[in-house]
Design a protein that fits this description.
The protein is mainly β. The chain is built from three helices and eleven strands, in the order E-E-E-E-H-E-E-E-E-E-E-E-H-H. Strand 1 and strand 2 form a beta hairpin. Its EC number is 5.1.3.13.
Length: 183
């Protein structure tokens, strides 16, 4: 398993070793010892999985306060553009984002620390799986509008399908003002 730093502190791209033969393949999606060796000491409490058709954008979501979550995200099948936005108050990369294509063939993953909004655009019908370090807590949920002009994320989807909730999140500037500059 290869754990790579990204330009944003505490965000990591993870590439597992895939063992293929005539029967199929095998890979490890998580190994506590390797994560700890890389300084990623996370206690996971919940696993989630979703299915989405091509053209959907989900996000950008976060949970704040004591319910803030670390996420380890991957695509079981299909392909998505996965995005995390730094919302940490004292971070030198506040308001910056990191995007990576998660691909069911590569089985690559993204480690998203607390203090980030997270979302993804579905490029190919996809089964999306993720571990969380805290349970879902509706009252702590928040988000940033997917098409925020300041972030200017190229999602790679021409006419996205969105939930009503994802159409109504505030922009980054409103979040910055209302939250006292971040999470």
């Amino acid at each position: 398993m290869e754990i790579k730093e990204t330009p944003i502190k505490d965000v990591y791209e993870i590439y597992p070793r895939i063992f293929k033969d005539g029967r199929g393949y095998f890979l490890e999606t998580y190994r506590e010892d390797l994560f700890k060796k890389a300084g990623l000491n996370t206690h996971w409490v919940q696993d989630n999985q979703s299915y989405s058709v091509a053209g959907i954008i989900r996000g950008l979501h976060f949970q704040g306060g004591e319910h803030s979550q670390v996420k380890l995200v991957r695509v079981v099948s299909g392909k998505v553009l996965d995005v995390c936005v730094d919302l940490r108050k004292d971070s030198s990369t506040f308001g910056k984002y990191h995007a990576v294509v998660l691909d069911g063939e590569k089985q690559n993953m993204l480690y998203v620390p607390k203090g980030f909004a997270h979302g993804f655009a579905v490029w190919e019908d996809a089964v999306f799986s993720y571990k969380c370090s805290a349970l879902y807590h509706k009252e702590s949920e928040g988000g940033i509008i997917w098409n925020d002009m300041e972030l200017n994320i190229d999602w790679g989807v021409a006419d996205p399908i969105l939930s009503e909730k994802d159409k109504s999140w505030p922009n980054l500037e409103t979040f910055r003002t209302e939250s006292g500059k971040g999470l």
